[in-house]
Design goal:
The chain has nine helices and ten strands. With about 260 residues, the chain is of the alpha+beta class. The chain has a six-stranded antiparallel sheet with strand order 4-5-6-9-8-7. Strands 1-2 form a two-stranded antiparallel sheet. The protein has a two-stranded parallel sheet with strand order 3-10. A hairpin with a 3-residue loop joins strand 1 and strand 2. The longest helix is centred in the N-terminal third of the chain and has 15 residues. The protein is elongated.
Length: about 260
């Protein structure tokens, strides 16, 4: 296997595509360690620096992961997020057992912290206002795939179970509804793509130039007052967002003798 000097793509990109093709064929399975850089460079007939650039590109794309002192491995399959935050509520406002089986959420912090700008804006309070935060990390197959945080007003959550450092055995929104005496009525999701900060890159085990997807989820009561503001950050290359929805049929035409809407 060698790169084609006459191809439009530069050599390291050609090799990256060939490695991806081999992974798709099953030559290297998820979790399998690739040969060393010198061995791969010899296989592809290129310099070690060229092969290293191919590996770097595939790491940014989320195809490969490098473990210091161990080697380069094929990353697992992409995490598919079904219906974004709607999946947390479900068709019957329940928990999705299939997600619970595949992903394990670990509570990492519960306490009061200054509100970051996007959370403060969602609550309509000044930046840095003290809020109650519940932070978590989601893993699948021991790979970190999500950094999350749920924020509540201190005056709403003080003295409730939301301040306890413990899981509830049910979705957080159900616990919050009972603890706060308010029902979640509507919600808004805002998704952005950006570079990770240093802590996010370290926790998610990605390079600093690997893009992440960031979700801001705001849940409101029936008076449109924010109950909870949640954040989630995922490694972009290994995350697929899927939205399933119905497409409305054509509007029924009015009968010929039915008066229409007059415009004028």
């Amino acid at each position: 296997m060698q790169s084609n000097p006459g191809a439009a793509e530069v050599p390291h990109r050609q090799i990256a595509e060939q490695i991806k093709a081999q992974i798709r064929r099953g030559d290297w399975a998820a979790g399998e360690r690739l040969p060393s850089i010198p061995a791969l460079a010899e296989t592809f007939g290129v310099a070690k620096q060229t092969l290293q650039r191919s590996i770097d590109q595939l790491r940014v794309e989320g195809v490969l992961i490098t473990k210091p002192g161990s080697g380069t491995y094929v990353r697992g399959t992409k995490r598919r997020l079904n219906r974004l935050s709607r999946g947390r509520y479900g068709g019957h406002r329940g928990y999705h057992a299939d997600l619970a089986a595949r992903y394990r959420q670990h509570l990492t912090e519960v306490g009061r912290a200054p509100a970051p700008p996007e959370v403060a804006d969602a609550f309509g309070v000044p930046d840095g206002t003290a809020l109650l935060v519940r932070r978590h990390l989601v893993r699948t197959d021991d790979v970190p795939v999500e950094i999350g945080a749920a924020w509540f007003r201190v005056e709403d959550a003080a003295g409730t179970s939301l301040e306890r450092f413990e899981g509830f055995g049910r979705p957080l929104y159900q616990e919050a509804e009972e603890a706060l005496g308010r029902r979640y009525a509507t919600a808004k999701d805002v998704i952005t793509a950006r570079q990770p900060d240093r802590d996010e890159a370290e926790i998610l085990q990605i390079r600093g130039d690997t893009p992440v997807l960031h979700l801001l989820h705001v849940a409101f009561d029936d008076k449109h007052r924010a109950i909870e503001v949640s954040q989630a950050t995922w490694p972009g290359p290994m995350t697929t967002l899927t939205e399933n929805y119905k497409i409305p049929g054509p509007a029924e035409e009015l009968p010929d003798d039915e008066p229409g809407l007059a415009l004028g």
